[in-house]
Amino acid sequence: MAGNSDRPSRPPTHEALWPKDLFEKGIGWVIVARFKSAGQRIEAGVFLVDVFCLGVKWAAYESCDRQDYLDRIRGHYESEFPMVAVEPECARKLVEQAAAYAQGLGFAPHLDYKKAARVFGGLHAEQCAQHFTFGCEGRPFYCRGPKETEEQARRIVWQLEQRCGRGKYDYLVALGIAENIGRAFE
Questions:
Q1: What gap in Å lies between CA 177 and CA 46, rounded to an integer?
Q2: pLDDT tens digits, 107-138
Q3: CB 95: neighbour CB atoms within 10 A?
Q4: CA spacing 20 to 30 A to 92: which of 68, 102, 126, 179?
Q5: Above 90 in pLDDT, residue 2?
Q6: Which CATH number fits domain 10-122: 3.30.1120, 1.10.8, 3.90.1200, 1.10.10?
């Protein structure tokens, strides 16, 4: 019987990237690409993952040709953020566990999460040996994003108060400032 080394190696079915400083910053883009049609067609899931609190804040699914994926999706994120290649199974595990962590706090993943998660087909999260810890220093930590309104920020902090209890979470929310800055640059 022939051993594994005698089999021709198959091309990869997936690739994945995430920021090298994801767990220091607490938020970043995770890209999972699934290669179809001998690698000429790509299905890409792009996830904005908040590992400190909100889980999958944004998600998108793209189906495109290989060059479009390399230029427009992968190329864009690699040029804008310090991305590193990771095992695709670990990217699936991270995204799913971040979504579960946030759901435990009462926050649902982005509306397009299920559609974007199509790219996980064929990946088995249990094959990833990495262990991920969510929150910041053992507690949920919410930091208001630039596109979140003051009202959204207040609702998120209220939800944390309800779910975690007073003093068992942290947050950083600038009120009234982000809207004025945003208008100045429009």
A1: 29
A2: 999 999 999 999 999 999 999 999 999 999 99
A3: 27
A4: 68
A5: no
A6: 3.30.1120
